[in-house]
Amino acid sequence: MPRHTKDLLNKTRMEKSDRRYTVKGMLEDEFYNLVHLERRKFFYTAWDLAVRPAKAIKMVLTGYKKYLYPYFNYLILIGTITIFLSVRYKFFVSGYEIGDQSDWAGGLLDSMGFDRQFRLDFFAYAEEFATIVNIVAIPFFSLTSFLMFHKSKYNLAEHFILNTYIAAQQLLYLLFFIPLLEIFPTVKQEIIGTYTGLTIIYNIWVYATFFDGKLLINILKSMLAIAIAFFVQTPFNYGVFGLLRPFIVWVDKIF
After folding, report:
1. Which of these, 20, 119, 159, 251, is most buried using a 10 Å CB contact count?
2. What angle do CA 241, 243, 90 make, to 5 degrees?
3. CA distances (Å), 198 to each of 41, 101, 171, 201, in order?
4. Is 41 exposed, middle or buried (0-12, 13-18, 19+ CB in 10 A)?
């Protein structure tokens, strides 16, 4: 390491402030970090991914890596808030019920060890721990978008970044539904269903406008990629839930 670089690092480490840590000061620091005018900060990223997601993510993938908040940090930050609120206050638990299934799908799931009670518990887990479900699904969405849009100039890693930003933004939208869930608790299942539909539309919109080509063709490819990814990731999320199932009861006790 060059001498001047070491001197700069040492100087930075040795800088001293006379201001003591206070709760007010900590809150001010965090607020500054969020709203600082650098484009990569949280609120600017949330806004860009809401109004021009394709353009914003393209900026990151074409070399402007600080244009948005780092993709994994963005996912973890929003995901952590989502899990905490959901587990603590049960905002997103809709009380979903599964009817008796005698069709081939129900029989197939039963034969795989995913009986009706397991599926009921899984849907409750998927609503309460949507962050974990989304994280597990990201590699599958990345793979299907990569295969469906294989003629694009983006590699698999870049598809992973694209889908991480999409998943994080979908979780952010989930937080915006909290007031509706509080005001209209009797239609919680319908509200969550509406949220699910809107996030699918958002996903299609980002894919269709991100990749080059005719818009209608891109929309059809996007719908197919999402459908395949959803189908493929489900058994894996079932498996993750099966591993976590014995520990989830302890989470509820802690909160």
Report:
1. 159
2. 40
3. 25, 28, 12, 5
4. middle
